[in-house]
Structure formats: structure tokens, C-alpha cells
Design a protein that fits this description.
Rossmann fold, alpha/beta, globular, 11-stranded mixed beta sheet, two-stranded antiparallel ribbon
Amino acid sequence: MHALHLPALRPHLHVLLLLLVAVGATSLVPATATATARAAACPAAPEGRCFSLTVPLDRSGVVPGTIRLRAAKIASRRPLRPPVIGLTGGPGQAGVSYASTYDFIVPMANRDLVMLDQRGTGASGLLRCPNLERPGQRFPRGARGETCAQHLGVRRSFYTSADSAEDIEALRIRLGAPQIAFYALSYGTRVAVEYARRYPHRVERMILDSPVGPHAPDSLAREVLGAVPRVLHALCATGCYGAEEHPVADLRRLVARLRRAPIRHVLAPGRFVAVSVDDLARLLRGSDTEPEFMRRIPEAVRAALVGNPLPLVRLRLERRGGGNRDSIAELNPTITTVTQCEEATLAWDHAATPEQRVIQARAALDATSDAIFRAFDRPTALNLGLLRLCGRWPARERVVAPPPPLPTRVPSLILSGELDLRTPLENARRLAAALHGRVVVEPGAGHFALYFGFDGCTRPAVKAFLAERALPTCRGGGSVAVGVAAARAAVRPPAGR
């Protein structure tokens, strides 16, 4: 997942979109969570009150230790309905510091809002691997992840979405709420769904914005690569500066050319900028929240094909050097790494050697339909997916029971941006099919559909859903698909899964 910058609300605000431990006491794990006696003022959430609760690191009691979780509550004047638990993404993103953002964009409908710093993030026992915290580094790779795993030891096994789901149950008990609702974003949707698997009777309803799919994220990024042609056609339907006629074919031609010889443009003696296939894939995926920037990419691709690489170089320079603008407390690369490498459904055997994992990943790609690779090639998947992040991660030591089935009776509203390439629309539709939920598609928007489609289809739908009213007709050209039949008819899962 990739973080988002929200300048309209706060200059340094980023909400993710996808990717630190001081465990408390070293005594044996208590049977239940304990809480502070009262809430306190909270600088991270000025409109609310902060409180904390202490939970076991390992609920089985085998590994000792506790984690003190921080949460914040923004109270409604008339809390007539179950509170909304707000979950951010990443994984690794703190929650409490985004309380004001969520309170602003989510029409609460007489509900309290409760934000949580999930375990290992923010002020909830910040899990840290110093070797992953290099300035400007957002996504650690390879050997650095392996070093982090060795540094954390057995603790690394207890920062999964299932662990966070149990923390939320402790939070619900702390709140004294018979039921809760969710507004979850990006990777946070996995946590919400994990909770609903275990405690469906405790979930009044849930809103899943830009969700990962039922078995996502795919460790080989096939869901992303397969969505590129659809997204480019949707984007260029309203114009791509003269390159709207064949954006997919043009991209495919440039990918083949870059695979043979990446662009290398000299800026000054000893300074140059390179554009490879992987750079192009990340440039496209990372621009889904900025349609006008994304619209310049097909134009730059067309120019490069006729011998002018400068437009593409300029786009690359605009994105290069920004680094990681989030503090470790806001977006934690250790949790980004640990959570995905410990819980993702991998295309390789986690007990295999790194060399065997590469062979297995390539075999999985060879078995994948060519339709997924209409724009980018198979080698792109090896670098865009989780192989570089988790390819050298140690074998998983914790034996985890299979999760309960997906809940089909929890009212679920799934939001998706038409141009989202981090968690594509296909994810939302597959998840809706599995949950028997409803999908609202925001036209012209990317990741974080509710925010970037604030004046469009998603906000009226969320307002009606939280107020327990029928969803309105979308007036912005988007669509509302209701029920499992519509979701299943909309898209087929990509081959190779």
C-alpha cells in the first residue's frame, strides 16, 4: 500500500494507501485487556479525548508481554447508534492522528467516532527496526527485511490483522458498546473484515473504502497489473493530451523497449535520471489520486516512443526525491514489512529458500493468464509485488488456525475509485461478492474514494448507509451495484490465483 498526502486538511497529513516494539510489562499475559481509569485531552486528536488499554502481545500466553494501545474518541452530541471504529491503512499507519480527518469526511449520523493506533503504530508500542528507517526510504527491500526479522525475533509473529482484530474486541469491551460499526480504509479493511469474521454479531455495519480483496494483496501484484488497461481507458476517455487513442498498446510497446534499454538522461556531469519498467509501473500506480498527473503519463509514453524521453523524465523527477514525508509514528515501515510478510497469501512456500521462492514465483506467473499482462510484462510482477519485500523473510514460526468464513449477513458498503491502482475496483467487486455487500464506484477518483470523491457519489451513499436509509442514486455518473449477483457479474478473478 502507498500513503496519500491530504493537503486540504493538514500540510503534513498522509492517509494510506496498501505500507516499532516497546512491549509494556514483561509479566505473563493477562486474560483480558485493562484500561486507564479515564480519558484525557489528546493533542493528536484535539476534538476528542484519548484513552489507553493494555492487551497481551500473545493471547495464547506463550510469549510474555503486553502492548499499551492508544485510542481517541470524538463524541457525538446525540450518540443514538453504535460507534464507528475508524481504521487507517498501510499496514503501519497510525490512527489517532487522523481522527479529525475521519470526523470531517465521514458523516457520522449520531455516532461516536473512535480511532485506534493499531499495535506497533503511533503511540501503541511503536515497533522499530532501525535498519528500515533510513531517510527517504518508504518500502524496504530484501536483506534489510531479513535483518529486521532477526532483530525482532519471535515478536514479529504478533502484528497481524488477526491480532489487531482481537485488539478491537478489547476496545469494544472497553467502550461498553454491544455493537460497533467500521469505516476502514485500504489495508485497514482487512482488519475490519478479520474482526467481522470472528465477531459478526458485534458488527452493526461496515464501510470498506478502497479495500484489499478477500485474498489480497496478491504477492505478485497481478490485481494491479490486470487493472491497468481498464484504468487507462477510463482515464483517457476524457482526454490524455492527444494520447488517448491507444494508451495500452503504447504502454506495452514502451515496456518492451525499456526492458531492452532503460532511459538514462544526463542532468549534469555525474548526475542522471533513469526510467526503467519498474519506475514506470510505480509512477502509474502512485498517481491514482492525481488524475491530471496520471493523464500526463500516456502523453509522455507516446513522446518516448517517438524519441523524446524528456516528458517522462520530468514526471519521474517530480516523483523522485520526495522521500517518505511521514514520520515513523505516522507510517511505520517496520509494521508495513512485518504484517505483510507474516500474513500475506504468498505465491511461494514461506519455508523455501530465497532462491526457491524466486523459482516458485516465476512458475506462478507462467501459470497466470496473458490477459493480466496486456500492459506490463511478467518480470514487472516480481518487483512490483511482495517478492522484493518478503523474498528473504524467515519462515513463519507461528501456527495460525484458518480464519472463520467471511460474514455474509453484516451490512457492508464497499467504496472504490474508478482509477484506483493500489486496491483496484476489481478487489471491491470480488469482496462485495464474498460479503453479499454493495459497491459504490466513484468516477474519476483513485484510492481513498470517500475523500477524493467528496462531492460525488460516495459521501451521499455513506451518509445514507450510516443513517440506515436506502442508498441514493448517484448523480455524478458513478454506479451503485447491489448484492452478490451484480458484484459477480461485474468482474472475474484473474487467472493464476
